[in-house]
Amino acid sequence: MTEMTTKTLNYAKDNKERMPWEHYLNEFKKLDPVEVSNRVKIPYNEETQNFTLNFLGTTYYIHYPDFQVTHEDDNMISHPLEDNIYAKILICRYLQRANPTSTSGNFLSYRDIPWGETYFTQFSGRCIMRLAYKYGYSIETFGKIMDSLGAERVSSGDIAYDLKLLDGLFIRFIIWAADDEFPPSAQILFSDNFPSSFTAEDLAYVGDICINTFGAVGKSLSK
C-alpha cells in the first residue's frame, strides 16, 4: 500500500480563519460527491469516500464529507493542502464551483481575469512584487525551487517556469533579475482556462500559496 501522511489544523494558532473555513467545510458536506467528480473531472472512490486530486505536483486524497486530507508518499518538500488553511479553502471553493475547461495554450495576466482590473493593485503588491523582491536577487535559487516542484522552464524574462497548479491549470512565473540600473520585476500569468475554475479573488490566494510553497522548498534546499 502507498504510504500516506496526514496532519490536522490547530485552530488555536489562527482563530481568525476558523469561521471562513467552517463555512466552506459546511458547504462541502452538502455536495453530491458523484456530481462533483463528474463536473470537476476528478476520481471519487465511493468505497473509501475519497476524491483524488493532483495539486502542485502531489497526489492528495480528500475524504468526503469531513475534508480530511492525506497524500501519496513523494519527494515533495511541502504539502500545502495539508498544512495551509488557505489552500484548503481554495480547493473547497474549487470543488463547489468549478466547471473546468481546456486551455488553448495561451496565458492571461491578472488584469485579463474578470474583475482582475479592480483588484490588480492588491494582487500586484501581494504576489507580483513579493515574487520579484524575494527571487529577483537570486534567480538561481528560484530555478532550483521550480525544478524541485517539477515545473517546466520556458523562454521569457531572465528566468521563467510553467507550474501546474491542478490538472489542466498552469501558472507562468516570470522574473527579471535586478541589476545596477533597475530593481527586480516579475509577472504572473495564468492559463486561459483559469476563469472557468477560479475567481480573481481566488487567484490572490493561489499566488500566496505558491510563493509560500516556494519559500518552504527554498529553506529545505538550503540546509
Protein traits:
globular; 10 strands; 22% strand; alpha+beta; single chain; 223 residues; 40% helix; disordered N terminus; 2 domains; five-stranded antiparallel sheet; 7 helices
Structure, described:
- With 223 residues, the chain is α+β, with helices and mostly antiparallel strands.
- It folds into two domains: 4-97, no CATH class; 107-221.
- The chain has helices at 18-29, 33-40, 80-83, 85-97, 116-135, 139-148, 200-221, and strands spanning 4-6, 44-45, 50-55, 58-63, 69-72, 107-109, 152-153, 159-166, 169-176, 185-191.
- It has a five-stranded antiparallel beta sheet with strand order 1-5-4-3-2.
- A hairpin with a 5-residue loop joins strand 7 (152-153) and strand 8 (159-166).
- The two termini are 31 Å apart.
